[in-house]
User: Fold these one by one.
Assistant:
Number 1:
Amino acid sequence: MNPAQSSVFIRSLGVHTPERKLTNDDLSKIVDTNDEWIKTRSGIAERRIAGPNENPSDMGAKAAAQALKNAGLNPEDIDLLIVATMTPDVPFPSTACILQAKLGLRRDIPAFDVSAACSGFIFALQVGTDMLRSGNYRRALVVGTEKLSGVLDWQDRTTCVLFGDGAGAAILELTDTPNVGILGNMLGSDGTNAELIHSVAGGSAKPSTPETIQNREHCLRMNGKEVFKLAVRVMSESCQRVLNKCGVTSDQVAWFIPHQANARILEAVAGQLNVGLERFPSNLDRFGNTSAASIPLALEEAWREGKIKHGDLVLLVAFGSGLTWGATLLRWHEPKK
Ligand code: UT7
């Protein structure tokens, strides 16, 4: 097998979401909001909230363990670990290194985080694919895991109602079957729009002090209206660019798995691509926006429910803080057992 020319495919997926559900009615007791507003503006009915000792590395390890089990693999079969997160357990070491130890992966493999916010899973998938094609690794574990509840401003009704916690994991593998798995991708970023979704303090530029904490400057801040417009435009364009690159039309794609930010964004992107919304599976109602975890959560659900079948074209697309965006076209591959 020549790795540089081999296909890279998703062999297996796994997920983990915390037990605790926070409904819109629960939120209406914390901030001035209501179930109707949240449902009609975002499509979200409830989200999961991690416990105090349930960190992104814990949720990610559970999702990864499930992905390994689904593939009939053991931790020692993994050669590379990439974790996408915007809510790392701690600033350092990486959540990937913490997860590596918790999952009992081999102690000599590279493990690192990718920071691309809600687009993180798409970025990590591409980094993993290219590293497998380098010929140095055979199998990669790519995890999107987030504990947004730890960085939300629970007094800001414009953001705290939108996000939730969870994790999803994918096992990437090389195969010599041609034209399967990841067929093409595109990634992009625009740092000039960084302030549309950001936090002000808590990093090395402005370390947390009692004052920054009192002002909740370590929390996520977002200009929702602006982000909404850009998300629709950039996600539609990203899909179109990958489709053009691969010589595929939108009607040939069986499933679109977009980052789950807002049901109205999904509707608008489906409209721009002239595709029926029934080909856009969504879990927003149950999980809200889980950032880097949202695509693997939605993908795993569509796979587990038997929607995605061998040979289907599947288009993943994301958009998030940075700003960052990206899309990946896959031909779903289920190797013969
Ligand atoms: O994953 C990263 C990407 N993030 C996103 O994609 C998020 C993109 N943005 C959005 O999803 C939407 O812009 C929101 C859901 C955040 C907001 O929806 P909107 O339709 O843009 O609402 P808006 O910001 O224009 O607010 C409309 C009204 C305002 O009141 P006034 O000024 O009209 O009196 C807000 O103060 O709704 C008010 N409002 C709320 N009311 C009840 C804002 N948040 C809430 C709330 N409950 N939680």
Number 2:
Amino acid sequence: MIGRLNHIAIAVPDLAAAAARYRDTLGAVVRPPQDEPNHGVTVVFVELDNTKVELLHPLGNDSPIRAFLDRNPSGGIHHLCYEVDDILAARDRLTAQGARVLGDGTPKIGAHGKPVLFLHPKDFDGCLVELEQV
Ligand code: CO
């Protein structure tokens, strides 16, 4: 059911320093920061040949990644995003198998303008999983 790895999201305490590390130390193509007020994050996209890395930094006071950074002050992998063809079919299959979808189960429009859902990390080996319909 899941297809390609769309991105790996890493929460970072210092966005400029993290972007510089990927650009200068790792030699990757790094895009300028983008504020995503609807998601409470500022994002820097790192473009790789086969996937993307998204460096996430809190934007605003009730950012959903603030608590994660409080628990992981030096940053850490926040979620993995897999592509699916049909997000509602994927949701129904997952919930039928006992996986928990976060929120009310209705897909939201994600940072790339496509419908997304998040799956409970306790159901996926401690890793928050995002599904994105492509
Ligand atoms: Co994501």
